[in-house]
Amino acid sequence: MYLILVTLLSLVYIQSHAAPLISTEPVIEFTIPLVENGKDSVEKIRLDAKSNSALFSVPSVQGSNAGDIMEDFNKKLTLIRVPYLRACFVSRGVSDASSLAALKLGLGLNEFQAGEGVDVSKLTKETNTWKVSSLLVDRRLLSQGMDSLCARFPIYFARQLVTSATDENQADKEQDESQSMRRKRSQNCVGTLCHFLNVSIFKRMANFLEMAGMAEMAQQMGNYEQSVELYTSALQCIPPNMPHDFFVRLLRDRAEVNWQLLRYEDACSDIDTALKIDPMLALGCELACDVQANRWIDRGDEMTNAGNVDAAIHCFSIVLNFSKKSRKVITTASALVRRATMYYRKGDISFARKDINSCRKIHPELAKGQGAASIKIGDVLFGKKKYAEALDLYKLALEFCTADMDAVCFEAHNCIASCYFCLKNYDKALIAGKEAVKVKQCKSASEAKKWKERGKELFKANKYSLLDEYYSLALSYAHHSDKELVSQLLCNRSLAFLKKNFLKSALTDAKECVKTRPSWSKVQHAVARPWV
Predict the structure, then answer these.
(1) Helices and strands: H and E segment counts in the chain
(2) What is the C-alpha separation between 455 and 459, in angstroms, rounded?
(3) DSSP secondary structure string, 29-96?
(4) Which domains does the chain have, with CATH numbers?
(5) CA neighbours within 13 Å on the CB side: how many for 231?
(6) Digits of tens for pLDDT over the chain (532 positions)?
(7) How many Å apart are CA 12 and CA 15, to the nearest integer?
(8) Which SUPFAM superfamilies is this protein grouped with (predicted)?
(9) Distance in angstroms (rounded) separating the CA atoms of residues 454 and 426
(10) DSSP H or E segment with residue 333
(11) Long-range contacts of 57-63, Cβ-Cβ distance < 8 Å, separation of 24 or more
(12) Which residues, other chains included, contact 380 with Cβ-Cβ below 8 Å and sequence gap of 6+?
């Protein structure tokens, strides 16, 4: 507002001395000397015929702050840059001049004599109030010159409000006006950059933008603690009824700093708050959403590797907000799979299954592949003797299995049995082994020998109650042509039945052992045991 005031003063003066500015050069640059209380300054003007734009660089006069105004006659936009506020404001429409050519005709330099300057105090003062509406997200709406001018600052949409030319003086004279009149007058400026009608809001706005700029500088310099404090102060200084853009932008920036400070939950909470305030603003454009989604997936993986389950879940939940707008199905599915894994590890099985079902609907192939992937990761943990963690992944693999995934399901059950056995939970190991046989009945010498060795360990540990069933599982995998292995298993199971005093079953196995391998030297002992 105050920036435009200064520019209009200059234009009023120039137009009052209207002498045609005739030039065929594509770019014209000149300065207007200004004098205020004996101090000299200049206003720079640049007219660019190629881009059909005009740039006014205004110094600080009459208590205002320096800044720049660019008018683009192609796009019919006016951009105001205020370095003090570390912000830019764009509005539709340009000055009274309908084109750059018309502006050139209105600008005259003949009246400016060498060594003389315009006395600012003699110029007509005109006050303009601007209302900020929202943050400009897609800068493609701007010309290249406008984008470059505000490359380091956020740009906000603004529109000019109609105000009286004497508002500033009236505001000073009417301090003792009745409360109702003051309230009525201030309603015209709520949520605006209004210096003359609502001084307090203007000051809070300036403080907020100044602190936000300082916070950004501290962040760039690596002073993260100071940056967080400044972002927090800026959030507290935002005037009431301001557009949501300000809150959302600061929260997103503070989240980045909190992450650098290893305050992971604080960072996630800032993003959550921004999404609650205004999801569309917090998410940004589709390209930005894609970048943010990938960033938070990486952060979720970082938390997963660090064992911070809650923070990982939070990160993947944030990813889902961004990925929905970016419309990247693979990103959404990946986040669901990762979050399901964390829920499962935490013990929230119902939430894990919900995410898995959601993944199946949007990307069934990824969901299927995740079953085998979970087994591979579990195998790595199993090799490191992290049996409990491996067990969770094997169980998770089962959740991803469907009816047409017998091989994966079979492998997962067998891996679960191995984990339980290593954890000395022999009952559950047996149950998992039986489930594997239900899924896929097959002959496997390796599986048969595995259950045979487990039976031996139970025998040595005097765990006889499950011994016969372990050998039964081993026999279900043994091929009939492998007479040596079958006879050993029958002999061992016969002994297991004897330990439980199941004499008839022991005798039956002994007889089968003789039939299978009559020449075996130990077969007579196997037959004699039940009768002894």
Answers:
(1) 23, 10
(2) 6
(3) EEEEEEEETTEEEEEEEEEETTTTEEEEEE---TT---EEEEEETTTTEEEEEEGGGTEEEEEE---S
(4) 27-118+125-164+193-202 (no CATH), 204-283 (1.25.40.10), 445-531 (1.25.40.10)
(5) 24
(6) 233 333 333 333 333 333 334 445 678 887 777 777 667 777 888 888 888 888 888 887 666 667 888 989 888 888 988 887 778 888 887 665 556 665 555 554 434 434 455 555 555 555 566 677 677 777 888 999 999 999 888 888 887 765 444 444 444 443 333 333 333 333 333 333 333 323 334 444 456 677 777 888 888 888 899 889 888 888 887 766 666 777 888 898 999 999 999 999 999 999 999 888 877 665 666 567 788 888 999 999 999 999 999 999 999 999 998 877 656 788 999 999 999 999 998 999 999 999 999 999 999 999 989 999 999 999 999 999 999 999 999 999 999 998 889 999 999 999 999 999 999 999 999 999 999 999 998 999 999 999 999 999 998 888 888 999 999 999 999 998 898 899 889 988 988 998 888 988 888 888 888 888 877 666 555 554 554 4
(7) 5
(8) TPR-like (SSF48452)
(9) 9
(10) helix 329-346
(11) 58/3, 58/6, 58/7, 58/10, 59/6, 59/34, 61/6, 61/9, 61/34, 61/36, 61/120, 62/5, 62/6, 62/9, 62/36, 62/120, 62/121, 62/125, 63/2
(12) none
Q: Where are the alpha helices (DSSP H) in 221-263?
A: 224-237, 244-260
In three-state secondary structure terms, 377 is: helix
Alpha carbons within 13 angstroms on the beta-carbon side of residue 46 total 13
d(CA 411, CA 382): 14
Tally the residues of the chain. 532
Q: What token pair was written down for 238?
A: 């935002």
| Measured distance CA(419)–CA(382) in Å, rounded | 8
- State both tokens at 315: 């990160």
Query: From the CA atom positions of the chain, what is the Rg in Å?
Result: 39
Question: Helix crossing, 224-237 with 199-220: angle to 10°?
Answer: 160
Q: How far apart are CA 104 and CA 124, in angstroms?
A: 22
Nearest to 4 by CA among 46, 74, 58: 58
Q: One-letter amino acid identity for 90?
A: V
- 353/357 Cα distance (integer angstroms): 6
